[in-house]
Amino acid sequence: MSGLSFAAPLALLGLLALPAIWWLLKATPPRPVTRLFPPLALIVRPKRDEETPVRTPWWLIALRLLVAGLIVLAVAGPILQPTERIVRGEGPLWLVIDNGASAAPDWPERRATAAAILAETGDAGRPVLLVATADGPDGIGAQTTAAEAVRRVNALAPRAILPDRAPLLPALTRLAGETPPGEVIVLPEPGDNGTAHDFLSGLARLAGTAPVTLAVSGRPAPVAIDGVEQDGAAVTVHLRRAAAGAATDGGLRLLDRKGRLLDERPFALAAGDDQADARFELPLEIRNDIARAEVANGNSALGVHLLDDRWRRRSVAIVTSTGSEAARPLIAPEYFLEKALAPFAEVTVSGQGALSDAFKAAIEARPAAILVSDVGRLGQGEAALARAFMERGGVLVRFAGPRLAASDETEVPSPLRRGDRALGGSLSWSRPQALGSFSDNGPYAGLAVPGDVTVNRQVLAEPGVDLADRTWASLSDGTPLVTAARVGAGWLVLFHVTADTRWSNLPISGAFVEMLRRTVALGSAGAGARDVGGNAVLPPLSLLDGYGRPAAPAAGVTGIREADIATITPSRSTPPGLYGSDDGFRALNPLRPDMAYAPPDLSGLPDGVRRAGLVTEAAVDLSPFGFGLAFLLLVADGLAVTALAGGFKRRRAAAAAVMIGLAVLLTPPVARAADDARLLEALSATRLAYVETGIADLDETSRAGLSTLSRFIASHSSLEPGEPMAVDPERDELSVFPLIYWPIDASAPMPSTAAMARVEAFMKDGGTVLFDSRDDADFSAASPNTARLRDMLATIDVPPLEPVPSDHVLTKSFYLLGAFVGRTEGSPLWVEAPDDDSGDDAGEVRPVRAADGVSPLLITGNDMAGAWAADEAGAFLNPLVPGSPRQRELAFRAGLNIVMYVLTGSYKADQVHVPALLERLGE
């Protein structure tokens, strides 16, 4: 609902003067008409050509009253509020903003709502206390002015967690005791972890009689991912939404660690369902590369699930008993197992020495699965180790044989009959059995039953009530071929035949490879993953921001013990991301299946708590329109008076001049003054420029980065650049800048075709654009930012590109450099590749080419502005990844080399510089 408010409502008292104005206008006679009479005209009554009215016409009085009323209204500062007015109280305003992950999709609307609230509060001169709930107690600021609160709101960004609001109430209670709030406005996010109701109830109690308003978004909470599993043949992504509602759909993406897209599938949540699964059937090689699952265009960390190195290619250990098989390696059981496991696992064989030593060695290697071929009864020590291994999530796979058949082993899924069953021998009573079926509730479900697999001998399981539930594969006569039982977080699996071909031809069939693949995939990565530190603290490696984008660890983030990584709740000090090092890391995700995720419970709140919506449009100041309309009506008044006095008949030229002047006034002026001033400012000094993306924090990083780089250049060279300027490629003049820095963000609006055409013309005329995808990815990768950059460049004619060669002039334009690093250092710098065939045919459309040896475009993913950015005090704004001692210095040197290369061309490639360069190299 729209509303009209006034910045200076007391000015409306001027409307009381309208009756007095009407009386004055009515009593004042019109302007007299002057006539010249000849002397004899005194005897004769002059003939009147025109009648002068005795009183001013009523419509002219009404016009003048309207002008006066419009001026009064314009002075009062009318403001059109597109939505219902939120601010209603007096005194100190408490503005509480949920800045968790579920607020990220509509964060611009939340920021606009906060800005509108603070603008109205600032007009009233009220103090403001700003609270950001996801920042914890540190998010409670001091009471300040509305203008300062606006600056802080602009610096706020959603975090990749659901806020824990409980620690905020004690601090707010103390503040309410010192200065009670005059009004409380809360912007709750649509996803909650169960803390919203108690927090809002506590706020209402602290407010007392002061009004409390909840500005609630109409958008539902984003679809979240709370788990990813694989069953040996496919990857299953588990989706969850905060509440069951209408049917919705979307897309899911699987990416590797460099951001390359591996697969993308649609998903659908039916009406009334709050959970759904999406299944990706992929080859193992691709499944091993998965590092991230995400909801496409979700714009929230809740729609991202990270996978660590526990997901990758499994490590499998084979334990055999020593015997005559060692002398016959090509028919030994471990030979068949190694061949079947080789396509999808890293295999180690432990079979030298005593069985206990081999088994202990296999356990200590921390594999995901251990395969035991024809070992009889496990000793007490081996059985304890095996059970502890399975309880941690490992899979113990046993194969039958003469030793197991002759033992009374108890470490099997189901009790076994003593001895074995021979089929098809000279004394047998039946023929060899074929493979019959796979259980629908086991990992082999869906596998085609091969018709050529036969079994000559097997160990039999004792019949029992749970035998059918533990059977994964059966022979054609219904007897079990593979049985399994859950042990802790892992599995105990028994193949009732040998691992070689003595009892069956299963080990040489294709089905055996797929059965082992699916069995090993059940092994928890925790049982066989690389040891990253045990109880040691894992430092943050790469984190998620509130939008689900990778981010460098910020100040205040602490490490996590590996033992706690599976149970710890993400917080501001331990946000979701990867913890450890490149040699071994663990993933902490925003949401787990055991974590609450629901809409905030707003029931049971006090009756005085009011609800409103978010501001979707900015408030409109109507004062300029009021003054403009009043001016036009005054012009119309003047024309009317002139017409009544007959002025147009005697002064046609003057009337024409008035009409021309009125036409000029009514014609929209071309906004050249501001553009000319901006152009003169750009020409007053050599300046770097950056493209405004519309993302406040990204644009501020670009501005601060180029500003700091300009100061670095001034202190290390004779060039003294001016302050950098922001540009809009579609509107601003680009040719006055030698270098334009363009940070890429997939969430920013796609540049128009006209904007890219102007950029292409700028590069053809000798300018250079530095595109930075900021994702630490190669330009050939498929990260969201790099994909957006490719889409942008697809609209223009781009020359062939290559990573900067070691002898390129960029590597020696000022400093001698071997790499061009930024906040990260994993991405190369791409430049135009040399073209030996420069003789283009006349009239042929040419791509942008290097002018004076300068590449028209440079591409990196190392977030260079992020490394350069510093505040006015010189404190750098962003940490570096990995943060080597000289990384920031090398980033500044890379920036200086790029600027010098753009300004001077390829002169450093001339042979006259060779002696100086060799001297600097010490050669």
UniProtKB/TrEMBL annotation:
The UniProt record lists the keyword DNA damage: no
Domain DUF4159: 687-903
One Pfam family here: BatA
InterPro entries: Aerotolerance_reg_N (IPR024163), Double_TM_dom (IPR011933), DUF4159 (IPR025297)
Domain Aerotolerance regulator N-terminal span(s) in chain numbering: 4-78
CDD domains linked: A4_beta-galactosidase_middle_domain (cd03143)
Keywords, comma-separated and alphabetical: Membrane, Transmembrane, Transmembrane helix
Segments crossing the lipid bilayer: 6-25, 58-80, 625-646, 653-671
Full protein name: RNA-binding protein
Organism (species): uncultured Pleomorphomonas sp
